[in-house]
Every structure is written in structure tokens, then in C-alpha cells.
Design a protein that fits this description.
The complex is a heterodimer of chains A (113) and B (113). Chain A is mainly β and 113 residues long. Chain A contains no helices and eleven strands. The chains are: A mainly beta (113), B mainly beta (113). The interface between A and B is medium-sized, with 25 and 23 residues.
């Protein structure tokens, strides 16, 4: 069972470069989200989607774009990377209903020099 | 400002010990309290609590919520080295579709043989 798959696992960028973090889930979950995790800050929601074609901002959306063309995929784009975006990024999906359960990918560690 | 505070920040115990992890919250429009376990990679779901005084149990782990005093505890009995992880607590809000969660910084638990 694949669950939530994120790629790449590690990436080093220079300031100003762009990149896309890929996220795919095979559980047919409508809800998907992107978090970043930083020391001393906890997990913070960047963007989320409640279904194909629907996205919305979370707590810290600046500098990131998302799209949701299919139920399975939810890529996160950094248009012009900044050192402040150095972080570990997690994609997560959730089944319908109020279970509270998020299924997380294994994370992508991004370093911006 | 909504916040979730976990204590202690870190804990070292010996196998077989019982531990209690604490989570206090100040969350407007509070809906639920969630516990996750994060080993080296992705957080994994443990419990969701919505009602005061009702214990949730899974094996050696149990948790309870006190909505009057605004806290929850996670107990782990007969600890094993495999329990070593960061335990995250999150407050869930009634926030429409975005399933907004306020995350604590976690308690890092190390269980020594």
C-alpha cells in the first residue's frame, strides 16, 4: 500500500530557483494538504484542497502555489525560493468524515542556500 | 491567539516505565484534540478526543481530555524502546473545510533499554 508519496525526499536549491514538490495519494481522499515543519515552530499549514479543482490558503501560504487537477495529485510549487523556505515539507491527506486522521507522506527536506 | 503547549519538551525513561505526556490548549472554536507519534519521518495518528472524561485506549497507550481545564494527557505504560519518538498534540478547530489544526511542538521521548 503506497499511501501518500512525496518526491523528492531531499533537495538543495539556490535562492531564486523554482521547484515543485510532488505529492500523490492512492486512497481516493478528497482532502489533501501541505505542511512545513520547522524547529521551534511546529507544523504549519501552507495550502489545502478539499477536492479536484479546489484549493485554499492555510496559515503560511506566501511564496507557495498549489493546484489540484486530479484527486490523486497535489503538487506544491516554490516560484522563487528563499532561505526562509528551508524546511521539512509534509503532504497529508484525510478520509471523509471527522476522524481527525491525517495520513502523512514521509517528508521532503528542502535547503535553500 | 490559539496555542497548544506540550510538556515536558523531552523525557528519558527506562524500558518498563510508565510515562505521562501533557498537552494544554487555548483554541477558539475548539472541536477536538489529536495525538500523533512522529518517529524519524511522518507523523502517524494515535487518537482523536472530543469528549471530556472518556478515555481512549490502544494497547499500552491511552489518552483522556479535560475540556473544563483545557488539557489532555497521553499515558504510555510498560514503555518499550519502540516507543521512542516525538509525540505531537494538536487542537482541531471548527473551521469549515480546512480541518485547521494548531500543533504543539511535541514531547521527545527516549526509552532506554
Amino acid at each position: 500500500n503506497a499511501g501518500v508519496t512525496q518526491t523528492p525526499k531531499f533537495q538543495v536549491l539556490k535562492t531564486g530557483q523554482s521547484m515543485t514538490l510532488q505529492c500523490a495519494q492512492d486512497m481516493n481522499h478528497e482532502y489533501m494538504s501541505w505542511y512545513r515543519q520547522d524547529p521551534g515552530m511546529g507544523l504549519r499549514l501552507i495550502h489545502y484542497s478539499v477536492g479536484a479543482g479546489i484549493t485554499d490558503q492555510g496559515e503560511v501560504p506566501n511564496g507557495y502555489n498549489v493546484s489540484r487537477s486530479t484527486t490523486e495529485d497535489f503538487p506544491l510549487r516554490l516560484l522563487s525560493a528563499a532561505p526562509s523556505q528551508t524546511s521539512v515539507y509534509f503532504c497529508a491527506s484525510s478520509p471523509p468524515g471527522d476522524t481527525g486522521e491525517l495520513f502523512f507522506g514521509e517528508g521532503s527536506r528542502l535547503t535553500v542556500l | 491567539e490559539d496555542k497548544v503547549v506540550q510538556s515536558p519538551l523531552s523525557l528519558v525513561v527506562h524500558e518498563g516505565d510508565t510515562v505521562t505526556l501533557n498537552c494544554s490548549y487555548e483554541v477558539t472554536n475548539f472541536r477536538s484534540l489529536l495525538w500523533y507519534k512522529q518517529e524519524k519521518k511522518a507523523p502517524t495518528f494515535l487518537f482523536m478526543l472530543t469528549s471530556s472524561g472518556i478515555e481512549k485506549k490502544s494497547g499500552r497507550l491511552s489518552s483522556i481530555l479535560d475540556k473544563k481545564e483545557l488539557f489532555s494527557i497521553l499515558n504510555i505504560t510498560a514503555t518499550q524502546t519502540g516507543d521512542s519518538a516525538v509525540y505531537l498534540c494538536a487542537g482541531g478547530l471548527n473551521a469549515g473545510n480546512n480541518r485547521k489544526l494548531i500543533w504543539g511542538l511535541g514531547t521527545s521521548l527516549a526509552v532506554n533499554p
